[in-house]
Amino acid sequence: MTTNGDIDSILQRGAEGGRITPDEALLLYTQAPLHALGEAADTVRRRWHPEGIVTYIIDRNINYTNVCVTACRFCAFYRAPKHHEGWSHGMDEILRRCAEAVELGATQVMLQGGHHPEYGVEYYESLFSGVKAAFPQLVIHSIGPSEIMHMAKVSDVSIDEAIARIKAAGLDSIAGAGAEMLPARPRKALAPLKESGERWLEVMAAAHAQGIDSTATMMMGTGETATERIEHLRMIRDVQDLAVSRGFVPVAVSEKGAAIGGFRSFIPWTYQPENNHLKGRTQATSLEYLRLIAVARLFFDNVAHLQASWLTTGKDVGQLALHMGVDDLGSIMLEENVISSAGARHRSNLHELISMIRTADRIPAQRDTWYAHLAVHRTPADDPTDERVVSHFSSIALPGGGAGTRINLPLVDVN
Ligand code: SF4
After folding, report:
1. Partner of 136 at 20 to 30 A CA spacing, among 193, 257, 361, 405?
2. pTM as predicted
3. Which CATH number applies to 4-58+150-162+171-400?
4. Ligand 1 atom at minimal distance to the Cα of residue 71
5. Is 98 a known ligand-binding residue?
């Protein structure tokens, strides 16, 4: 029989930096009192990030195609090959969107798209090298293991060769996209044509071994069990252990451009139920999300950063997460079409993000992809002042999910 004393002693061990087992994490997730759970997670956050800084990044998600052969059941963004709503963007349009992002202060682009049946390694080489040539200052934090497996198959090369070639072409960092739920049962239900969770992690480990680090994500709320949620965390922690054993040491804040290696951060987000084949399924509640956030901070003794997904949970829950172990609010997302297509309608701008952080009694700071601080806003006098940048609201699903050309970002009227 579990007692309150058992829960207290696990919380204390986790708060002090000791490792907790998956069974203990499940116990905390399902039974620990919320305040005690949040307090323990916040203690861990303070140890990783003692200055009390909470970061954000300015970036744009640019979609190169919505054509996809993988037909994930939760996805509202893709169109099957030959579907009349399928589209792909040429390099000119992608560069135009990059230029707009740079204009608004972006330091990173996330190039994201479907598994187009004709897009092999050569396509991605030309995509990344084209963006790097035009905008060497932009960090390319893009694609995920699923795209790497797809391009390797189309080009009939090994995973290692695909990774080496896209790295040489300019890919700086791999996004944690496509993790969804890693355990087999929920993954098969969500994305029957996608690779297994184990394969997803193997490709991440292969990229880490070649010096490309990444993030890790989790989509919660499609009917998976509490045990499966904790199993997802375990699978990621084991691969991060591998990265650490190879000498990639996670650190709280890196020097600019320093390779931390492995998974830099963990980013859980909540499934959005519109316009897809899973419509009607239960969504994760705010409480489930906050509890998961806190357990993740306690469980990941080897991952430096934890990001809240205000885009899917809303800003109030995003701010609350700052008291449950979170140290990063991600991006204002100058453009986002994939999750927005499934119903995420929360919008924000830099004014709001900075205010959310400051009113949570934290110090806001703009970061780069590797969490190096670019500007720390210790007082309101340190806040960014370029009105076009600070007042620009994140976009919600551009027309056609980003289709068409010359669709300008809906810039605010600053007058
Ligand atoms: S989630 Fe990605 S791989 Fe799955 S259908 Fe959508 S675009 Fe394709």
Report:
1. 405
2. 0.92
3. 3.20.20.70
4. 5
5. no
